[in-house]
Amino acid sequence: MDGPLTGGTYEIVISAVLERDWSKWFDGFAVEAAAQTTLLRGTVTDQAALHGVLAQIRDLGIPILYVRRLETPGLDG
What is the pLDDT of residues 17-76, one digit of tens each? Predict the structure, then answer.
């Protein structure tokens, strides 16, 4: 499948506080901790890569609060 949904930039908010050095573990996603949550933000090449990051979170036993695909300039749909 080719098109705008094959990859993109995503925000994932998890119910845990992680340090920035976890970025390497999450395929280079930026890690921004808040009081009770952590925001992971990064780009994936395709849906399989996104599912890989989500599986890593699952394997750590951390609840996912939400996943959001960010708007990509120049892409329709």
Answer: 999 999 998 889 999 999 999 999 999 999 999 999 999 999 999 999 999 999 765 554
State the residue range of the domain holding 35.
8-64
pTM for the model stands at 0.84
Quick check: is 22 in a domain? yes
The whole-angstrom separation of Cα 54 and Cα 56 is: 5
Q: How far is CA 24 from CA 19, 53, 56, 71, 77, in A?
A: 11, 11, 12, 24, 31
Domain annotation covers residue 27: yes
Q: How many domains is the chain built from?
A: 1
